[in-house]
Amino acid sequence: MPINIPASLPAVQTLISENIFIMSQERACSQDIRPLKIAILNLMPKKIETETQLLRVLSNSPIQVDVELVQTATYTSKNTPGDHLLKFYKTFDDIKDQRFDGMIITGAPVEQMEFEEVNYWPELCEIMEWSKSHVYSTFHICWGAQAGLYYHYGIGKVPLPQKMFGVFRHKVLAPSHPLLTGFDEYFYAPHSRHTTILREDIDAEPGLELLTWSPEAGVHIVASKNGRQFFVTGHSEYDRTTLAGEYFRDREQGLAIALPQNYFDSDDPEGEIPFVWRAAGSLLYTNWLNYFVYQQTPYDLQQLRQLEI
């Protein structure tokens, strides 16, 4: 899938070096097709790293994608250069009159706080409410998934005795679901979080379906039965070394951090890192774009209907 992004975005050179099709805005404007409009609400502290990871996994389909990067107005990242945010990011006020085929709401390192204690929670609630009428399908990641389940369905998160940190094997529970087309019965995905969602809470909600599950990591992919919302508690978009970066960062800061499970070869932090989740992660995003965005969204986005929860 060609990604239509500004040529000066830092992710461009990284993606080009990986043979990912980047389309200039000039070339995109000359094509007589309607691209998919995808908004990425990036709540992660290292926004350049996160946007690069997400653009990578959105690139594996023949449909052109126009990406709009969005940040909160009520909190400004301290880990991303201000000129980058000013140049490439918009706020909700900038986009609220637009409609989008799809939206991704990322995770955020705030899962140990109560939702209402997060300083941008009211703004995020406004965005999630807006998404019901202005976005066809929304893909929530990690804390974003927990926030979405809490806001839309009243399902709370539960603290874990220790951080869920590593790469875990998951089982496909709904093999006929289009989001899981082409998946093996078992696959791997990274997790990095301090809280979880209980399976019984998902099973008790008639509007939701649990698609994948891990005996170690628990609830993984949850779908609304109408295909308009997905909640993924892991990080299938992560690079090979992302968990390593988190581990070494915390260790250097003197924080109590265990080795990420099933991650370093032979549990040697100086050893190799087998990249065992890349194929499933790429397929997850490609299936979402194909089956729940491209195949479902009305050509005229003004015809989007309000999502009923």
From TrEMBL:
It catalyses: L-homoserine + acetyl-CoA = O-acetyl-L-homoserine + CoA. It comes from the Bacteria. Keywords: Acyltransferase, Amino-acid biosynthesis, Cytoplasm, Methionine biosynthesis, Transferase. One of its GO terms (biological process) is L-methionine biosynthetic process from homoserine via O-succinyl-L-homoserine and cystathionine. It holds the Pfam family HTS. The record marks S192 as: Important for substrate specificity. The keyword Hydrolase does not apply. Substrate binds at K163, S192, R249. The record marks E111 as: Important for acyl-CoA specificity. InterPro entries: Class_I_gatase-like (IPR029062), HST_MetA (IPR005697), MetA_family (IPR033752). Pathway: Amino-acid biosynthesis; L-methionine biosynthesis via de novo pathway; O-acetyl-L-homoserine from L-homoserine: step 1/1. It is found in: Cytoplasm. SUPFAM superfamilies: Class I glutamine amidotransferase-like (SSF52317). Belongs to the MetA family. Transfers an acetyl group from acetyl-CoA to L-homoserine, forming acetyl-L-homoserine. This is Homoserine O-acetyltransferase. It comes from Neobittarella massiliensis. The lineage of its organism: Bacteria, Bacillati, Bacillota, Clostridia, Eubacteriales.
